[in-house]
Amino acid sequence: MNVLLDNLSLYAEGLLGTVELTVYSSLLALALGFLMAAFRVAPVRSLRAFGTAWVTVLRNTPLTLLFFAVVLGLPRFGLVLPFKLFAILALGCYTSAFICEAVRSGINTVPTGQGEAARSLGMTFPQTLGIVVLPQAFRSVIPPIGSTLIALAKNSAIAGAFSVVELLGVYKPLNELGYSIIWTFVWIAVGYLIVTLSISAIFHVLEKHYGVAR
Fold first, then answer.
1. Cβ pair 133, 107 in contact under 8 A
2. CA 125, CA 106: separation in Å to the nearest integer?
3. pLDDT tens profile 121-148
4. Which residue intervals define the domain ABC transmembrane type-1 in the entry (predicted)?
């Protein structure tokens, strides 16, 4: 317990950093994921091609490599941001590809007759998608989206290698101070467990209220 109690403020700072990365990256991932899913089922070929390219590239790129591309590449094009914003951008974009595929699979579970009926009533594609299809698709994709965001929370540990304050980075100063590395990582693991269980609890509530009955 001494490792935790003697360095409570350090652990709290790291935990807060991980929570901030997770929350902001999740919001970005959800927004981009739903947008790319809409692109992938759009009647416009160029939008479908863009959505497919987005998912293909990001799902097959290692997250660490994406971090290097964002942190080292974007400043060369004149975009200079704090490292935390770069980390949020990398995590959000990477995770959005997996959110996109989860949402697209949910869209495919909606009977095609639903969309055809909406179009026969004169609805446009955005109206059909937003009013008819996505609300039904969302009910079936709550569990996979929750699992994806839990993975995002754990992936945020990579940000510590790029000078971003987060939970895993706590081990560095504690190791230098001579604390037991085993107990240092035990309390780090507890911190990640708190974050992931919180996400799981939120999505359990969502699934209970909105999910498809099995």
1. yes
2. 17
3. 888 888 888 888 888 888 889 999 999 9
4. 15-203
Q: Are 168 and 187 in contact (CB under 8 A)?
A: no
Q: Please give the pLDDT value at position 213.
A: 54
Average pLDDT, the chain: 89
Q: Which tens digits make up the pLDDT trace of 114-123?
A: 877 888 888 8
Confidence class of residue 19 from pLDDT cuts 50, 70 and 90?
Answer: very high
Nearest to 131 by CA among 144, 121, 140, 143: 121
- Residue 194 neighbours by CB distance under 10 Å: 13
The pair of structure tokens assigned to 52 is 């497919």
Residue 160 sits at the vertex; the CA angle it makes with 158 and 161, to the nearest 5 degrees, is 75
Q: What is the pTM of this model?
A: 0.90
CA dist 46 → 57, 124, 125 (Å): 16, 18, 15
CB 137 within 8 A of CB 103: yes
Q: Exposed (0-12), middle (13-18) or buried (19+): which is 38, by Cβ within 10 Å?
A: buried
Q: DSSP letters along 124-160, please? A: -HHHIIIIIIHHHHHHHHHHHHHHHHHHHHHHGGGGG
Nearest by Cα to 171 from 192, 197, 144, 153: 192
Q: Are 199 and 150 in contact (CB under 8 A)?
A: yes
